Amino acid sequence: MLRLLQIEFQKIWLNRTSKILLLISFVFPLSILILSSIKINFFGFILDLSETKIFEFPYIWHITTFFVAFFKFFFAIVVVSMIGNEYSNRTLKQNLIDGLSKKEVILSKFYFILAYSLVVTLFVFIITLLIGIFNSPSGSLYIDTIFDGSEFILAYFTKLLTFFSLCLFVGVLIKRSAFALGFLFVSFVLELILYGLFRFEWFDYDKSNEIMQFFPFTSMWNLIDEPFSRIASLHTTEKFPITDYPAYWYEFVIAAVWIFIYIFLSYRLLKRRDL
């Protein structure tokens, strides 16, 4: 495992574009840290987001992971480019000549996205922890309070790994980075349209969600529910429909099944392909 991971990181680090994209991808989570510490002036009205309690424990775990998860579409450029460069630079064929099997090639990619997901998740965990400590009342900083809601970090890691596995499969399928990214975007839009048809034409709300939870992008979305109703509930007595925010165990299972499917199909594609 370490040998394959070392080979993959060496290829990424020797490619200037990939290295820059990799480094930039760690800048985006810092935007939440910056946002939590600034005050916005709207024509003389000062908006201090830290006063809304959204940066306090336990809410910060939910807020951070939900919004930072949107940056995964930028992270997709790193993963898809990694595969595209293999084909354009013919390093994939050279790896096979040097003795790597096609199974080891796919495993090296998977080990990279696994390590990448772990590092990004750890980075987000540290940032979220710091934001919560700086913004929560000092009298409420107990271990059980601090880590209440931290399961969203696990959901964020699962979401990243699932999405990167999808990017790996699409990269192997289409080969060219630009077309692969376009395919991801079109797939996302088509799934949104399909959800709209299920929701407004064919089924009711509950039945639509029951069916769509098994679809690729929806299964990732379900891992971290939207936090807006939770934020609103902090400042009103009105009841909102979503009361159980953390992901259910079966949502993790669905995501894990998709990870297996993406990696398996990537291997089957590469095994059948004449390089």
UniProtKB/TrEMBL annotation:
A Pfam entry, by short name: ABC2_membrane_2
Record field: transmembrane: 20-47, 59-83, 110-133, 153-174, 179-198, 247-270
Keywords: Membrane, Transmembrane, Transmembrane helix
Protein name: ABC transporter permease subunit
Organism: Kordia aestuariivivens
